Amino acid sequence: MTEAETFDVIVVGAGVLGVATAYYIQKNSPDKDVLLLDRYLAPGQANTAMSAAAVRNMFASSTNQLLTDTTIKYVEHVQEGLGRELLFEKTGYLWLLSERQFSNGSAQLWMHRMDASGINYRVYEKEELTQMVPGLNMDFVGDEEAELMHLEQASYGLYGGDCGVLDPTRLVEYYYEEFKSLSSVRPRFGVEVERLILEADPKLDLPGEPFVWQEKRVTGVQTDRGELRARDAVVLATGAWSNALLDPIGIDSQTKGKKRQLFVVHASDKPALNELLFTDGFNSLGCIPFTILPSAGVYFRPQLQEKGFWIGCGDKLGRAFKYVQTDDDLVPESAYYENSVYPVLSKYFPAFEDVRPVNSWAGGYCYSPDAIPFVYFDHGVLVVNGASGSGIMKSDALGRIADALFRGEEYAELYGGRKIKADALSIKHRDVEVESVVI
Amino acid sequence: MTEAETFDVIVVGAGVLGVATAYYIQKNSPDKDVLLLDRYLAPGQANTAMSAAAVRNMFASSTNQLLTDTTIKYVEHVQEGLGRELLFEKTGYLWLLSERQFSNGSAQLWMHRMDASGINYRVYEKEELTQMVPGLNMDFVGDEEAELMHLEQASYGLYGGDCGVLDPTRLVEYYYEEFKSLSSVRPRFGVEVERLILEADPKLDLPGEPFVWQEKRVTGVQTDRGELRARDAVVLATGAWSNALLDPIGIDSQTKGKKRQLFVVHASDKPALNELLFTDGFNSLGCIPFTILPSAGVYFRPQLQEKGFWIGCGDKLGRAFKYVQTDDDLVPESAYYENSVYPVLSKYFPAFEDVRPVNSWAGGYCYSPDAIPFVYFDHGVLVVNGASGSGIMKSDALGRIADALFRGEEYAELYGGRKIKADALSIKHRDVEVESVVI
């Protein structure tokens, strides 16, 4: 029997959280052999590539505010300071809220917490909003359809000026190339990790180990191309697939997968839609911000490169949770657009009427119960997951936190020098506020 | 097409939590049609029957203290006051702790909280413990095996005098018969619930409903014998099977299954074991209490009816979590007893040396992350689960809380008049202390 290949660290998953983590671990421990693995054939090809890739610091929990604010500033630094084009565009975020939504306690707390953290945002009241967004239908009075659909009329807009959109693949490539320039180990793709290897520590070489009275540690991974061993850590940045690896060894990741879909419409040959896209006055790009409607979780992202919109929906009750992501989570449903998304979208923004998607895709969202990511390092396995649809906008912070845990630091220093307890996002010592502002 | 049968309430699962809930709902809403369903052929035949059925109020969280303390007092009332034999025996609980375990903060907090709640317990120090339990090996000094196994020498015993054991089947039968005496609907067995029926509310009778913009409600269950409709609520008391019904409609139950096993040994023809079983001085039965060893989660329950012991182990890392309970969770593993449990057990209690189990079984434990049960009523489905191995000892309280939620009460009144917020165990408004004392 040949000896299994051994590394110091094996990072499973080359999505944005995996590459950011691999990069920071390698950067701060230059002597360590860090192997990056992915089942796909290139980095960032799975759920990272399926994301709406919008970034915002407009969260209600100070934890999410910190994770996103520092990541966005780092993204800006990479693009402006280091000159690496990430297609990061400060379109802003525009949350449309009804009278009821705006005045309820949860929105008030959200604004209060943004004020306290100095998050750059402002409130547009009805009149101003009407003028700013002529394409927005703000009058549902007497509209029986809108009433039947329980749609609440938009009365306020919360605009976040430091928010925007970026190209997730470019961000992944940035971390990936930086990682490769530091690492002596060639990343491997097309490798499927089948299970974590949990062993007794120390091993007694008895058949049937590990026994219940032994200490245990994850010492490697079984892949479809053989066993790989890790001296210090196996990093799992496996998002909506995490349960399949963690449950069998008795670690409850508390996350679940959920399918999310995006639908692309083009505006160039549709004057009303083109006008909506180039709604001026919010940002220096002269475009409509990333916009969240008051009802049903429907949102759209302006897409300047292809002159159009990406349209999505954060559906809740009625959309299955998945134990692990399945292949059908990658198949978008045209009926879902037509019956669930389109009627809402076109009611608020009539410019979308009769417009049909030219493209669509779907991916797996890795949900955590409090909508705050998990980062923990127990028994040899370092888990970074549960970003709840906001992994890209938290990637830099999460990579640094994972690295701090790896190095046994008490605090992680995020971009700009702000600090967070390295175990604040762990399961055992979790110290976060539940996030209430999720799409 | 014939109309589906319709009830006011459908209770899925006739384990101890299902029958207790059905009983309290029916008792307090006598005009409601309450249908009790189970996939097995009689009540209490699944995981309830597989339990060690030990009951204790020795918890660290005030929530679990309240749930168990009131349930134990009710059990006592049923047996002593109503004259229904439940084989409830106050054997007491004896937690053996090492010096290190006793002095660490978590044990100190546990005792402090039991003091604060007036839980009846006492501490035996080393010398006393030696005299009380002559069968306990308290000296591991120089024992290389014990050292290799990381076994910590017992130095303290925490004894809870109101704790004990009971016959879970008799407790289920009690609630079941009481329920039947009140209900006009005959319970149904051998019926498998395949899925929850989630519908738009109100329905528009459009194909593809429910859409994302519609309100939704669980209105019934699809079973292998057809559809059944519930006007007011579908109660899920489905323990380790809950995810299979809740995930598909987009409710994350946060629970998982875990296999647990019990091994039976007989003492009557083994003098040393017989002596251990009849260790006098703790209780009026003259038997050794339900005893938890300091290491590896191993415990035993005295079984006076068959003059023997039930031996179990709360294994953690290395024992898989299950998304839903599978059939192999019902198969005990003899190698597990021999290699994991026996070496620990016989080291602390040499009387078990060379004794082999005469019987064994396994079942599914329904784990919740904070080791506190869940009770919540959302969108037409009332969930009672996540009892984390202590459903029997919390059954009366959980049944009353579920009924209070069903009736829209703000508080549930537990046995003896103590109250708890009806939504304190919910996911959304959870108001509990994380439990630290789990086996």
Average residue pLDDT of chain A? 96
* Secondary-structure class of chain A: alpha+beta
Low-confidence stretches of chain A: none
Major β-sheet annotation of chain A: 9 strands, mixed
Query: Which shape of chain A, going by the Cα principal axes?
Result: elongated
Strand content of chain A: 25-35%
- CATH homologous superfamily label of the largest domain in chain A: FAD/NAD(P)-binding domain
Largest interface: A-B, 51 and 51 residues
Walk me through this protein's architecture.
Two copies of one chain form a homodimer. The first copy, chain A, is of the alpha+beta class. The first copy, chain A, has two domains: 5-52 and 169-254 and 370-421, FAD/NAD(P)-binding domain (3-Layer(bba) Sandwich); 93-160 and 256-367, D-Amino Acid Oxidase, Chain A, domain 2, CATH 3.30.9. Helices cover 28% and strands 26% of the residues of chain A. Chain A has twelve helices and 21 strands. Chain A has helices at residues 16-28, 47-50, 62-81, 99-103, 105-117, 126-132, 144-148, 168-182, 242-246, 271-277, 334-348, 395-406, and strands at 5-12, 34-38, 54-55, 93-98, 121-124, 154-160, 164-165, 188-189, 193-200, 216-223, 226-236, 256-266, 290-292, 298-303, 308-313, 321-322, 359-367, 374-378, 381-385, 411-413, 419-421. In chain A, strands 4, 5, 6, 12, 13, 14, 15, 16 and 17 form a nine-stranded mixed sheet that branches. In chain A, strands 1, 2, 8, 9, 10, 11, 18 and 19 form an eight-stranded mixed sheet that branches. In chain A, helix 1 packs parallel to helix 8 (168-182), helix 1 (16-28) crosses helix 12 and helix 3 packs across helix 12 (395-406). The longest helix of chain A has 20 residues, at 62-81. The radius of gyration of chain A is 23 Å and the shape is elongated. Chain A starts with a strand and ends in an 18-residue tail after the last strand. The interface between A and B is large, with 51 and 51 residues.
